[in-house]
Amino acid sequence: MSEKIQKILARAGKGSRREMEKAISDGRVSLNGTVCALGERATEHDEIRFDGHLVKFKSENDIPCRVLIYNKPLSEVCTRNDPEQRKTVFDRLPILKQGRWIAVGRLDINTTGLLIFTTDGELANKLMHPSHEVEREYAVRVFGEVTDNTIQALRQGVQLEDGPAKFNKISFAGGEGINRWYHVTISEGRNREVRRMWESQEVQVSRLSRIRYGDIELPRTLPMGGWAELEVKEVNYLRKLVNMKPIEMRKEVGRNNKIKNLKANRIRKAIRKSELREQGIKPANKRRRKGS
């Protein structure tokens, strides 16, 4: 079956449908060697190029919507290829036979915690779009004097260089003296927004971790560098947030890495094996031989 080209490009992670419609109107997309017009359709047997680059894609029915959560460690960057050869958040994700993992937003190199990945580019783009106002919650450790006036200012809104910003909620989460923890929520994903808001009040952020995205929480049993696949129920919750049709079934990435079956020790071993392979060390096989 054929699909509109802007839908194919959105699913491939090139941008939102609206952005792809503009790209087509601007002549940046070709179909089988000819600049295409808005409204044209294609099948998986056609050749689509975006800005001259070949777009690899499958039909919608051939690519199940998969969603992973990942516990990002410090020092990993949210890019597919880093010119400085630093570790990226894609390095430890499971390898796909078709499609690719697309990050829903990003965290800066010094921020840890919950990242969401999906094979559905349209879902990723819609979740990132500010019009849907998906709430994010962060655990923040700050260094500096935090007064009632500070809290009030952050709740009512502060002026940043890219416009006003405020926390939807802010609550004290422990600590003493000038090192204290707070939980804060925002509904935007601007670059370093949480850090910049605190800094506007002359308070420094010493640790920052995202712990919730919408109703999807970071499980306590998921170690740093570990991933797990969302159940269909959670996937459909995310799709409903952005007015997309629910899915009924899909191929699983790994049956032992489902949210309800998280086993921290097993995932830590998998992370350790991954680290050994990166160092060129072959992990030892500890399986016992039959009869031993």
Descriptive key words:
9-stranded mixed β-sheet; globular; Pseudouridine synthase; Structural Genomics Hypothetical 15.5 Kd Protein In mrcA-pckA Intergenic Region, Chain A; alpha+beta; 3 domains; 292 residues; 4-stranded antiparallel β-sheet
What would you say this structure looks like, in words?
With 292 residues, the protein is α+β, with helices and mostly antiparallel strands. It folds into 3 domains: 3-62, Roll (Structural Genomics Hypothetical 15.5 Kd Protein In mrcA-pckA Intergenic Region, Chain A), CATH 3.10.290; 67-130 and 216-278, 2-Layer Sandwich (Pseudouridine synthase); 135-213, Pseudouridine synthase, CATH 3.30.2350.10. The protein is 22% helix and 25% strand. The strands form 4 sheets. Strands 7, 8, 9, 10, 13, 14, 15, 16 and 17 form a 9-stranded mixed β-sheet that branches. A 4-stranded antiparallel β-sheet has the order 3-2-5-6, with no helix packed on it. Strands 1-4 form a two-stranded antiparallel sheet. Helix 1 packs across helix 2 (17-25) and helix 1 (5-11) packs across helix 3 (121-128). The longest helix has 15 residues, at 264-278.
